[in-house]
């Protein structure tokens, strides 16, 4: 074991492959993909497409969690930004709509970041404020109605396709590439990991932990805004009550499945997105298998518990201890 | 003098509630009646009961996100047990309380023995409880048992149309019981100690594991009781009932002056926090033109104001004397 392999997330990819295989067993057409009207169709594409909002959220969430934080407000931010996009879509050109919506996401992220970094409020509580109030704000924007729009430009972001791939997938890939470029292309990722690992030591080492904390929440807000726009564009409207409801939990779950510890430190954006796909593949599988969709929550709970217990420092140590014990007894037998 | 300073957050919350009540009464002359106050207690009884359990959890430095789902599960279980399986209501109550307590004990044990953050364990509990209630039934089931009609008719009549209903009585009893348990017993002292510092609590010879498991057992059992009250209040069981109540309960506890980092707080403060939220709802329904989403925004603003106030007092306290030992960074 002198040569340590880089983390490639074998377990997550195996899990995804197993779930996809299970889906193929319950529905033999699962892997069929056909090209129709210049767009790809099929269950597999559907998993990617439906998984896009959670994948987008998890890209922002993984950075927040790597900093020992948590962002509970992303679902509410989705509702706010979706509401803004839907209510402006028919009266303003697309760039204005996007600027307003993404700007709102940035502002929400900035609010969270300032509460955490400057007022030093615990992340769960700081983002809880926007989680509670955000849905009210979204309803204020839509005036309590379900706002619909007809703008084809905005609708393209949810239902259109680029080179055969549905736009939500393209947007997610673009956001993932951009985030990877910023975080892994520079030393920023290292600084985030250092701060998550030991905030005080990192600050003493000269890392601007406060600024990075704010930046990470702002990025999470931006990702949530994009997810909100995609969700709105998909249904050609905005429902302030239900848009993004409980998606913050799915995003946290995706990050945890992706192997990023809730105690901060090392993170993987790519595996968080794989985690989001695992969740969506399970959802789709349950629907395809004809099981009641209500099973979904129970399955999710069991999966999150299993992953957490595997991640638990104490249980991990015990399993390692058992391994050592077995190893010893085996070597004794050999001698 | 020092004990008075200790009570500042609770006094501030109470002052906010009284000021709010006076403002509402000035705006609507009918507001200042015993009837409105009694309705405030009845309508928020289930939230008050949950908030008491949440106070224990938060003072111990934890959080319980599963309570809303546990309420939902309880109502569905009761409706099925009483209406379909023919279990007598009182036995169904006992059964569901035992189930909920066991559920809380399991979560507490996982938090303690797997050393996982309470937030994520109770999040999984939230999924599980909601999922199980979906599996039991997705319909809204009416409960028509005699006991239910009897209990909802039963109330202390206080004159002027004011009624102290059974849910309100149960909530007041839980609040008083919670105050006694937290402030006068050894278990209560352990809860405060855990919130101050887990490591130091263990070194003091207090059984940390037992206390942690008991705290989450208490929270879930109270959520179960709250579910019983909720089913009395609505005479039905529905798997989607009480969605988001965990957030209302946390908000009430924070508004009530309990420190989210643990180690400090009062059950009475949470009770007032619940009443403040109820007051906002009542004001909105009196007004008639304001929409219900203003309640969410107002709650969010209040949360922010109280947390900012907490941070400020903490900051000032740290400045005046060195940080007390065991405060986590």
From TrEMBL, chain A:
Q: Does the keyword Phosphoprotein apply?
A: no
Ranges annotated as spanning the membrane: 12-31, 51-67, 72-89, 95-117, 124-142, 162-183, 204-231, 243-263, 270-291, 297-326
A Pfam family matched by this chain, by name?
BPD_transp_2
Origin, by domain of life?
Bacteria
Q: Which UniProt keywords apply?
A: Cell membrane, Membrane, Transmembrane, Transmembrane helix
Entry-linked InterPro entries: ABC_transp_permease (IPR001851)
UniProt main location, coarse: membrane
**CDD domains to which the protein is assigned, alphabetical:** TM_PBP1_transp_AraH_like
Q: Where in the cell is it found?
A: Cell membrane
The signal peptide here is none
Its membrane topology is listed as: Multi-pass membrane protein
PANTHER family in the record:
ABC TRANSPORTER PERMEASE PROTEIN YPHD-RELATED-RELATED, GALACTOFURANOSE TRANSPORTER PERMEASE PROTEIN YTFT
Name the chain's protein.
Answer: ABC transporter permease
Q: Which source organism?
A: Ancylobacter radicis
From TrEMBL, chain B:
InterPro entries linked to this entry: ABC_transp_permease
| Cleavable signal peptide | none
Name the Pfam families on file: BPD_transp_2
Q: Which domain of life is it from?
A: Bacteria
**Cellular location of this protein?**
Cell membrane
State the annotated membrane topology for this chain: Multi-pass membrane protein
Which keywords does UniProt give here? Cell membrane, Membrane, Transmembrane, Transmembrane helix
Kindly list the residue ranges recorded as spanning the membrane: 45-78, 90-113, 119-143, 164-184, 213-235, 247-280, 292-312
PANTHER family (UniProt xref): ABC TRANSPORTER PERMEASE PROTEIN YPHD-RELATED-RELATED (PTHR32196), INNER MEMBRANE ABC TRANSPORTER PERMEASE PROTEIN YJFF (PTHR32196:SF63)
The identity of this protein, by name, is Sugar ABC transporter permease YjfF
Question: What organism does the record attribute this protein to?
Answer: Ancylobacter radicis
């Amino acid at each position: 074991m002198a040569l340590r392999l880089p983390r490639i997330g074998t377990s997550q990819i195996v899990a995804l492959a197993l779930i996809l295989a299970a889906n193929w067993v319950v529905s033999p057409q699962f892997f069929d993909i056909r090209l129709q009207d210049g767009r790809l169709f099929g269950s597999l594409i559907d998993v990617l497409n439906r998984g896009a909002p959670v994948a987008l959220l998890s890209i922002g969430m993984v950075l927040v969690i790597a900093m020992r934080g948590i962002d509970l407000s992303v679902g509410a931010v989705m509702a706010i930004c979706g509401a803004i996009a839907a209510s402006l879509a028919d009266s303003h050109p697309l760039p204005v709509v996007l600027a307003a919506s993404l700007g709102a996401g940035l502002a929400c992220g900035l609010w969270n970041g300032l509460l955490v970094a400057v007022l030093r409020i615990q992340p769960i509580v700081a983002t809880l404020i926007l989680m509670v109030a955000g849905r009210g704000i979204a309803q204020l924007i839509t005036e309590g109605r379900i706002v619909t729009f007809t703008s084809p430009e905005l609708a393209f972001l949810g239902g259109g396709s680029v080179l055969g791939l549905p736009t939500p997938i393209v947007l997610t890939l673009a956001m993932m590439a951009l985030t990877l470029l910023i975080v892994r292309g520079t030393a920023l990722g290292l600084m985030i990991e250092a701060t998550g690992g030991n905030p005080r030591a990192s600050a003493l080492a000269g890392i601007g932990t406060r600024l990075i904390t704010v930046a990470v929440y702002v990025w999470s807000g931006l990702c949530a805004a994009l997810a909100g726009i995609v969700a709105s564009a998909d249904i050609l409207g905005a429902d302030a009550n239900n848009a993004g409801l409980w998606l913050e939990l799915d995003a946290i779950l995706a990050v945890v499945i992706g192997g990023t510890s809730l105690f901060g430190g090392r993170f993987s954006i790519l595996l968080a997105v794989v985690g989001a796909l695992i969740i969506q593949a399970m959802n789709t599988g349950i629907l395809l298998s004809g099981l009641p969709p209500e099973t979904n929550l129970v399955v999710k709970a069991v999966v999150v518990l299993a992953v957490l217990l595997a991640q638990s420092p104490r249980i991990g140590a015990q399993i390692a201890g058992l391994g050592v014990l077995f190893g010893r007894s085996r070597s004794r037998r050999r001698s | 003098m020092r004990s008075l300073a200790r009570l500042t957050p609770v006094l501030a919350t109470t002052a906010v509630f009284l000021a709010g009540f006076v403002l509402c009464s000035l705006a609507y002359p009918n507001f200042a009646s015993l009837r409105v106050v009694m309705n405030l207690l009845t309508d928020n009884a289930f939230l008050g009961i949950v908030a008491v359990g949440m106070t224990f959890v938060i003072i111990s430095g934890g959080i319980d996100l599963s309570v809303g789902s546990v309420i939902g599960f309880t109502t569905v279980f009761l409706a099925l047990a009483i209406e379909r399986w023919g279990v007598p209501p009182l036995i169904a109550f006992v059964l569901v309380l035992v189930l909920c307590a066991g559920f809380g004990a399991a979560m507490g044990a996982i938090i303690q023995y797997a050393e996982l953050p309470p937030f994520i364990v109770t999040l999984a509990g939230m999924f599980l409880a909601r999922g199980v209630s979906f599996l039991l039934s997705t319909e809204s089931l009416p409960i028509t048992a005699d006991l239910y009609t009897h209990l909802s008719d039963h109330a202390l009549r206080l004159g002027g149309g004011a009624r102290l209903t059974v849910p309100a009585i149960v909530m007041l009893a839980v609040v008083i019981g919670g105050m006694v348990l937290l402030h006068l017993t050894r278990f209560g002292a352990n809860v405060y100690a855990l919130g101050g510092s887990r490591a130091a609590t263990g070194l003091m010879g207090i059984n940390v594991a037992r206390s942690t498991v008991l705290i989450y057992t208490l929270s879930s059992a109270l959520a179960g009781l709250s579910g019983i009250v909720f089913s009395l209040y609505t005479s039905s069981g529905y798997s989607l009932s009480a969605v988001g109540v965990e957030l209302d309960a946390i908000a009430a506890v924070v508004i009530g002056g309990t420190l989210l980092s643990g180690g400090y707080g009062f059950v009475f403060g949470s009770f007032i926090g619940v009443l403040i939220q109820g007051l906002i709802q009542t004001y909105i329904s009196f007004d008639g033109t304001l929409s219900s989403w203003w309640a969410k925004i107002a709650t969010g603003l209040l949360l922010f104001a109280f947390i900012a106030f907490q941070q400020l007092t903490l900051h000032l306290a740290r400045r005046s004397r060195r940080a007390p030992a065991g405060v986590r960074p």
